[in-house]
Amino acid sequence: MQFNIVADENMPNVEPWFSPYAQSIRRVAGRTLTANALKDADVLLVRSITQVNKNLLSGTPVKFVGSATIGTDHIDQSFLKHQSIPFYHAPGCNAQSVVDWLLSVLCRLRLDHELNWSQKVVGVVGIGHVGSKVANRFKQFGTKVLVCDPVKNANGELPEHIDLESLLVQSDIVCVHAPHTRSGDYLTHQMLNADRLSLMPKNSWLINAGRGPVIEESALLEARVKNGLNIVLDVWPNEPSVSVPLLDAVHLASPHVAGYSLEGKFKGTEMLARAFAKEFGLTAIKSVPLPNGVTVDARLFEKSDVEQWASEIVLALYDPARDTAVMRFSAGNNQLDARTFDALRKEYPTRREIASTTIAHAPEVLKKRLKMFGFTHFK
Ligand SMILES: NC(=O)C1=CN([C@@H]2O[C@H](COP(=O)(O)OP(=O)(O)OC[C@H]3O[C@@H](n4cnc5c(N)ncnc54)[C@H](O)[C@@H]3O)[C@@H](O)[C@H]2O)C=CC1
Ligand SMILES: O=C(O)C(=O)[C@H](O)COP(=O)(O)O
After folding, report:
1. What is the pLDDT of residues 254-283, one digit of tens each?
2. Which one, out of 1, 15, 197, 229, has a CA that is 20 to 30 A from the CA of 293?
3. Buried b (16+ CB within 10 A) or exposed e, 215-242
4. CB of 65 closer than 6 A to ligand 1?
5. From the CB of 128, is ligand 1 less than 6 Å away?
6. 211 carries an active-site annotation
7. Residue ranges per structural domain of the chain
8. pTM of the full structure
9. Is-contact 97 261, C-beta < 8 A?
10. SS3 state at 67
């Protein structure tokens, strides 16, 4: 059986993974996709910017939907289930990318704001694929970590869970890795509102790489002014638009790219291809190899302080200060508009993960520090 496949234009490797089963592969702009563009489609492959629901799929022959993402808040899964359309996403595909993004953020804050983050109390909200890796990485540095995940706790999976309010009161740095949900017992829509943010210690830090609407924009701005809250955002309350007052209020900004490592993107497509092959009883191709990772010469970043030296090396892979500057430069008077936000993501430069990177000429003391960040290749 051969399929007509419609895939988001920003998904890598669709051709090598899907061409063995494809009558056609058509690339489309995910944000503006309409039912009309799916009138002959058997398979729909999307990213987070396509709302997949009754409006999009009614009257189309689509019989498989895949999203090369961790998050699923753009998918009406109950509609798909009701229509018996199999749906797969890519749990965990870019979790390591988000961890690496966070480490770069912390290194930038260490250098620019002397934030000695590894000695602080860090609260992690949402302990799934991303949050659990984040918590474990902090523990490598000996950091005290508090965790909040009421869903896992209710299932008896997270005995160390503390409630959100206690976590906010006790943490110097809060990292949000929760999904965006609008229903259920533990909905996260605007979960971080003015009352909750007011619980955070003065001048503490809030970092969100989960979903934007988990935090209320007006509450963030108020907490910045009233409580000196320091803010880092990869995801935005009204994404894809970003208001200039909010962009001005944050210390570091990026256009929803925490998950954008090459490794994460490759894995997302691969997971969908394997799920697709299994669903239709087909044989998946073996692999699409990743390009070789990069080598960084430690001597180019030498500093007398080993923590600073390691930070400079992490920032050589990815520096969120660059994204911050690009977003500010690209914004108009009142907002960074949706089209510009999407363009920044579409044209995003290739980023490699820490674990794919080789460090050359690092002395033992530096190697020891770099291993804490997840570097494993040295020469
Ligand atoms: N910025 C980016 O580029 C990326 C963002 N994401 C976002 O990060 C989110 C987390 O990713 P994963 O860890 O892979 O997802 P996951 O589904 O593995 O874990 C999410 C965790 O959040 C927990 N959770 C649900 N409601 C909660 C609440 N009210 N309070 C605290 N925790 C709650 C769940 O129980 C679950 O353990 C995704 O849903 C996605 O929206 C994911 C990848 C990249
Ligand atoms: O996987 C997720 O969930 C994410 O947030 C992705 O990194 C979002 O990337 P796009 O699908 O919007 O390209």
Report:
1. 999 999 999 999 999 999 999 999 999 999
2. 15
3. bbbebbbbbbeebebbbbbbbbbebbeb
4. no
5. yes
6. yes
7. 3-89, 95-253, 295-378
8. 0.97
9. yes
10. strand
Residue range 322-339, pLDDT digits in tens: 999 999 999 999 999 999
* Annotated catalytic residue within 137, 177, 211, 345: 211
The CATH number that domain 95-253 falls under is 3.40.50.720
Question: How far does the centroid of ligand 1 lie from the alpha carbon of residue 117, in Å?
Answer: 22
Q: Do 3-89 and 95-253 fold alike per CATH?
A: yes
- Cα separation, 362 vs 286, whole angstroms: 36
CATH code: domain 3-89 is: 3.40.50.720
What's the 3-state SS for 225-276? HHHCCEEEECCCCCCCCEEHHHHHHCCEECCCCCCCCHHHHHHHHHHHHHHH
**Least confident among 87-91, 113-117, 285-289:** 285-289
Rounded to an integer, what distance in angstroms lies between the CA atom of residue 77 and that of residue 53? 8
High-pLDDT (> 90) share of the chain, %: 99
What homologous superfamily is domain 295-378 in, according to CATH? Erythronate-4-phosphate dehydrogenase, dimerisation domain (3.30.1370.170)
Q: What are the tens digits of pLDDT across the range 41-73?
A: 999 999 999 999 999 999 999 999 999 999 999
Whole-number pLDDT of residue 284: 87
Tell me, using a 6 A CB cutoff, whether residue 94 lines ligand 2.
Answer: yes
**What CA–CA distance (Å, rounded) separates 91 from 94?**
8
Q: Is the CB of 210 under 6 A from ligand 2?
A: no
Q: Is the ipTM value over 0.95, yes or no?
A: yes
Is residue 129 part of the annotated active site? The answer reads no
- Asked if 256 is an active-site residue, the reply is yes
